[in-house]
Amino acid sequence: MAATLSDVAQLAGVSIKTVSNVIHDHPNIRPATKQRVLDAIAAVGYRPNLTARNLRSGRTGVISLVLPTLRNPYFAELAEAVIEAAEREGLSVLIEQSRGADAGARASTAQLVDGMLFSTLGSEAEDTGLYAQLPAGPHSPVDHVTMRNTEAIRAATEHLLALGRRRIVALGARPGDTSGAGSLRLLGYRQALAAAGLDSRPELERAVESWTRFDGAAATEALLNSGTPFDGIVAFNDALALGALRTLGQRGIRVPEQVSVIGFDDLDDARYSLPALTTISPGREQIATLAVQMLAERIAERGEPLPARTITVPFALVERESTAQASAD
Amino acid sequence: MAATLSDVAQLAGVSIKTVSNVIHDHPNIRPATKQRVLDAIAAVGYRPNLTARNLRSGRTGVISLVLPTLRNPYFAELAEAVIEAAEREGLSVLIEQSRGADAGARASTAQLVDGMLFSTLGSEAEDTGLYAQLPAGPHSPVDHVTMRNTEAIRAATEHLLALGRRRIVALGARPGDTSGAGSLRLLGYRQALAAAGLDSRPELERAVESWTRFDGAAATEALLNSGTPFDGIVAFNDALALGALRTLGQRGIRVPEQVSVIGFDDLDDARYSLPALTTISPGREQIATLAVQMLAERIAERGEPLPARTITVPFALVERESTAQASAD
DNA sequence: TTGTAAGCGTTATCAT
DNA sequence: ATGATAACGCTTACAA
């Protein structure tokens, strides 16, 4: 059995209040008493019972991170960043998978956690379906931390344009999507083309089912088979780009000599692909840090609810081999 | 403020005991009363306070998974498997990073979790350094779920031997390691060679700092530069193998025609590399399931401590392109 | 069938 | 400077 406050108090010959005072470094404790208590704590190996403390304080020190899957490196890297940011705030992270409808309702609705962080695939239906599920009810304000989807893909496209590429493929359009990340990124691609005075060509906008390496490879396969000529690929995420690289490699098409490829996410994998992938770094660490901080503030402000805030973080374009300047063509 | 048992009781005009009875589906409740209580629960939006329940029961329903990093796909995939297994047991998973010495002591020593699962990189020092840290003290029994390191790498090596490979590289030896996964795998490699009547050649046993894609690529680079001829690579994990594939691809060496490559872990990535990687599937789902089950049993048996158990799970060799039979050489 | 009350281990408000 | 004692919200003997 674990030792409790009263065990310590009894051994030290004081009341539990005094022990509690010592633990919390309250002022006004006689040094002699304090020492006696500290000795008693050491003697019985006392550790505060966090559950009891939580019941009193109404807090648990735990937040949950709800995401679709850890097998997707994007989410794994985000989770790691969140865990580290949470640690800095003195919080632990419970990871839950959002299997469709029940977006992580388990531990959360049951007040096991002080707050929740949601990360989605950025598809439209997903985001909207989420709000209904929130434990605090649909009225409570929700903060958002977002990335510059449109601007970043526009910058990515302009990067290829600056290399002299003119037949640039947009890889990853999602047909039904009109407000999610997919459509924002498609918009950025179109903006870049328009600003460069190029017509957008439907046959260069390639749709995929999901933003995975597999679909990236398959879509590139289909693209090649269609005979449509192209000299650049703006993939809407790194997984798609890595899939594209695989297919291009298999077909003997040289990157970056014949085709430039750029991705989005700056996964660890992007550094080790062949060739190493140029990509957009969306500011993952900052997103994680801000999200955790905002949640921590909200947890601290219980009662007086803060207004909903939306923060957008800056991105960076990371140049690697897949868009290196072709020496000669 | 969240509604409590007494709020519900007051509204329904019964005692909290009755409400509690309804919640726990106790027998002997008059249907009319039950309905009244259920209505009241719905009316105030009552959700049981898990923290209070935990304080009473002494359990939290949370276990922690301590691992080095989620950025390593091996651990990300394991974490996902553990989360799913835990969900089946009605447990939530808190993920903690073991940053060196303090192997996840935070939430754990503080009784926030009912039990802990450790997954390490399998290096020797790491494992031994762990036991001292365990919250329950060094006496408490610890269960182990392990994979067949030696047998699996032996099978991998024999797979290459069966393809006619004779100059097989072991990629991933860790010099200082005499009891960790590295040495067990090296042993399997040597056993296979010995059984085939081949001498083990030191120049074919390539050491690396860490089992990463980066070091796999670098070690393969060094191997090629050394001029040592070879026709097969047994990598001690998939990351090393994927790094090797990258270097071989870069150098224009064809896999599997000139060199056969096999890995260990069966990461999702192994399916999408170029060429797709043959590998050892170490039984990850089973490991996760068994580990969670054993822990759940231990949590249930509080008091009467079970003896320490060690379970070893079977492996499977997954054949893909990187060891396809070369048609002609 | 339902109610009363004790207690889980803390923290915090009073007194003293 | 320290000690009683009442909460926190729940489960569960024991009574009624």
From TrEMBL, chains A, B:
UniProt xrefs under SMART domains: HTH_LACI
Species of the source: Microterricola pindariensis
Signal sequence bounds: none
Name the UniProt record assigns to this protein: LacI family transcriptional regulator
Transcription is among the record's keywords: yes
PROSITE patterns named in the record: HTH_LACI_1 (PS00356), HTH_LACI_2 (PS50932)
Domain HTH lacI-type: 3-57
Pfam families assigned: LacI (PF00356), Peripla_BP_3 (PF13377)
Segments forming a coiled coil: none
The UniProt record lists the keyword DNA-binding: yes
Keyword terms: DNA-binding, Transcription, Transcription regulation
SUPFAM superfamilies, per the entry: lambda repressor-like DNA-binding domains, Periplasmic binding protein-like I
